[in-house]
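Objective 1.3, modelling of assemblies. Example input:
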Amino acid sequence: MVKIAVMGHGVVGSGVVEVLMKNHNGIERRAKEGIDVKYILDLRDFPDLPYADKFVKDINVILEDPEVEVVVECMGGVNPAFDFCMSSLKAGKSVVTSNKELVAKRGQELLEVAKQNNLNFLFEASVGGGIPIIRPLTQCMAANEITSVAGILNGTTNFILTKMITENMSFDDALRLAQNLGYAEKNPSADVDGDDACRKICILASLVTGKHVYPDKVYMEGIRNITLEDVAYADKFNAVVKLIGMFKVQEDGRIQISVAPRMVSKSDPLAGVNDVFNAICVVGDATDEVMFYGKGAGKLPTASAVVADVIDCVKHRAARKYVYWEPAVDNMIADYHDEVCSMYLRLCGKSTDELMVIANELCRECVYTDGVNPDEIAIITDIGTYAEQEATAKKFLERGVNVISAMRTLTL
Amino acid sequence: MVKIAVMGHGVVGSGVVEVLMKNHNGIERRAKEGIDVKYILDLRDFPDLPYADKFVKDINVILEDPEVEVVVECMGGVNPAFDFCMSSLKAGKSVVTSNKELVAKRGQELLEVAKQNNLNFLFEASVGGGIPIIRPLTQCMAANEITSVAGILNGTTNFILTKMITENMSFDDALRLAQNLGYAEKNPSADVDGDDACRKICILASLVTGKHVYPDKVYMEGIRNITLEDVAYADKFNAVVKLIGMFKVQEDGRIQISVAPRMVSKSDPLAGVNDVFNAICVVGDATDEVMFYGKGAGKLPTASAVVADVIDCVKHRAARKYVYWEPAVDNMIADYHDEVCSMYLRLCGKSTDELMVIANELCRECVYTDGVNPDEIAIITDIGTYAEQEATAKKFLERGVNVISAMRTLTL
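Predicted structure (tokens):
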């Protein structure tokens, strides 16, 4: 019987305890040993729970108990989660976490200490909730050179965009609905401004490049400015608007990485991912495109990913898992102005005939569509670097054309 | 440097050698050791290859060389692949295979000997080609009780059905096109009659239940009888026709398992899987629905899955992977007459008004649609066991109604 401790008894932490108890027999069969929660660390009291006697308020009880082999961190936030995880590793305990902010911001330091102490630091639940992605990326696709990853990594924004697309609901109304359903926080910034997706794409980029990619280095744009007109134009271009976290590995080994709303062609499997579902497309040189789809959040999906990591820790006490990346290096992230893509531009300020003439002059192979409102059109520009796209937009302004909105397209 | 041998230099075997050479550095970094192909077993000669000196024709050269630690089997078929794999395991070498027929028909015996000798017998490539599925199912979802699996497991039939659906091509024409493109064999039976999908769903069912599920115990129906009318009716019901390999775990632990064409609602993520792509939906009690999507066949995707297994063998020489299932037990597969589903029925032989009256009498909550031809209608029957569905069809016949075609729907 392996003893573990769970730090934090919120949504995910309580889910971990629930999954361990509910599927006890199957888990024991797969781990080849029983797994027993010895302590739960939480400052709150839960006197009515059947396992109320397991609660402790002092981390040192866990750190000083040599019986505890694995510590599960489900507290969220960087502090004190980082200190508690670090202390656990230094006390010789493997650590499993669902905390994407922690892994994205301080993961390398924890991986380093885990490596030095021949312990595991695992975080399958930090990206994609219950969707298996960390292990497939590091193990199943280990024979590939991975060239790009693009994902719908945040369920809340995908829910909002789905409501805008399928029910013509405004951003504000869709956000309010998401809040009422408990999908979005009262302060929705981490979701709608892209921070949450950014942390997840950083974790995936760190795994693929083998070097820590920090969120504050990543170009990030949220979905607050997406309008119903943008969504309608996307439909005219046979596309949908999705918040995409992505990176591409350049020939020189540097990466293009960003979080931004993009027009995604309906022929792309990511386009069909709706509501709170997440999906991650990985392109490897041998496998080509592979996609992983499922619920990216929620108590039991996330908890089940945490428990799978715990099982792995228990099974691999002899042989540490090789999840690891090195410290960040300078200059590994390419300037976002160098990204090659085409752009959706919504144009007005002239007659539609004049708009088309000017568009044809500035973008020789552009695709355009009639306006969803009178006196405007929308185009998809020629492919070029983002710097070139900005130059084109500037030329439109110089010709007296008003660019009402602009959005990247998704090209892998 | 770890020495391996590759048995069979066909499409997959040559792909394995290619991936190992092309991505040598990345693979060495991930395996923590270089991987060197010492022998390639093939009865043919390849004098022009740069690695022509590696070819051998006698399996004993490999078996008797203690330097060879991992043997990769890409020969296909059960004989002599089974004997060669068994001999390799008995000679103390781990075995990796892409051979679904071998794993589905004789996998348990090989797993048993691998276990006894503390060796690995891995087969990620046998299901879904380059799509990671075996490892996610056994590791990432280890905290779940898996309740059902349903997949589009054969790219050839999915290509044919996609052509029928999107280009109104007849089955015969679509099959001919698939043959011309090299997707289908001259004798297409293994694909279109369901054997290939059946082997794959048996492997997944064996993994989930922990007991060998043999293909000859599985209800199987191919796609030869699917007509363009069936496809058109599916569209009227907002569904598409897909060849689905699936199983559900019943309350009593027995499984419902089948391969059959089914009408799949367009709201199901499997409905959007087109052309030669495969996808597998797994439902766990904690994760809910998770889907894996990608190319289910092809030289490099399949080879990359084989190489990922080789990397795992190399990394885990100390700790054997716990992929294993026990011998089959009697009575573990439920009678297919007990499966609960609704059915699509295409009806004629009376006026459409009379057909609707009779349909309403026999299926009180059925959904129906106008005929794609005059003097016929189609319905989706009430949910019931397959035995009940057969009884209903018989009642239609007794009332003078002709049932032109019948197909299950997909309900997980």
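Chain A touches chain B through 58 residues (CB under 8 Å).
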